[in-house]
Amino acid sequence: MDTSPPRGLIDARTATARLGISLNTLYAYVSRGLIRTAGPAADPRQRWYVESDISAYLARKQRQRRPKEAARTALDWGLPVLRTRITRIENQQLQYRGHDAIALAQFASLEEAAAILWEQPSLDWVPEDAPLPRLPGRLPALQRATVALALHAANKALPIDAPVAAQAMEGIALMRTVCLALGGAPGLPVHQALAQGWGRTHLAELIRRALVLCADHELNASTFAVRVTASTGASLAACLQAGLAALSGPRHGGMTEKVSRVLATLLDSADSTDDDEVKIDQASRMAELFGHPLYPDGDPRARDLLNKMPHDSRLSHLIQSAQSSEGGYPTLDLALVALERYGKLPAGSALKLFAMGRCVGWIAHVLEQRESGQLIRPRAEFAGP
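-> structure tokens emitted (385 positions)
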């Protein structure tokens, strides 16, 4: 039986050799939260250690000796670059303003999650939506939402120093516009609006859960784009447009399209022993669909969403095969695509759920960035001749 650590983990002997420290010092680093462990063994000598944590620790030590190196790597999963009170990711837990996001998703609507993230005691979600402006036909989903935001916000944007409650109301109106642009029905809570608009009212609860799990995730690429835009004094609609633009990229929200293609290839072909071997081989080469740098023991959002869907033996077999060969866990992108497939939702619904839910977090970050009054303007290190 192979007892070697899964992908992304290393044993104690390798960890101490790489760090140049003793076992006791390694255990001390673990107790101080500098390095995380994984694996079922209770004996610390048999535990596995998160390789990325060790690499990050060594990189921090190197940056302390070379300040320019710290600046060069800060934007690539490096040191924190902004202070926030919105979302915390630590020890396999995702928290919105101190609320466990997984627990919140058990009961909260997206509107209730917004009230928490925007620090509003309650939000008056107007039941009737303004008519969606006329849009060009056949636009991709995110571009459709982007155009709708621009048309809706024309000559209606509030000043950035308006009372926070008024900014929150503007946020509600813009979210309703996005919901309609993504195919939601008017006059309903967001999860019900999407479920009805997509003709899947029986999936409203799963859609609600997915939206809350997507609401925020700290300083990812789209949220950083939103904060940079907000720091310039741009309108709330413009900030959401920046977020949608960044989200559309294939290495961010657009990853759902790649996951969808991969799952279609691996799960929708004819069954045979040979095909299964090919599928496992293909899955092992799709390591980017499994694992998240912030969750060495698996993304809790993906785990929660997948656990709430009926068992799919073929998908479960694929996930188990990928975990055995690559040591990774399903991503949120995979879970959203699994929901799209299970519910027979319209094509591209995984990305629409991601975008709709994340609008809540983006608005929270706009409000926080405006409060700080800071212009985000880093310096560049010239590397030309």
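Residues 94-385 form a domain with the Citrate Synthase; domain 1 fold (CATH 1.10.580.10).
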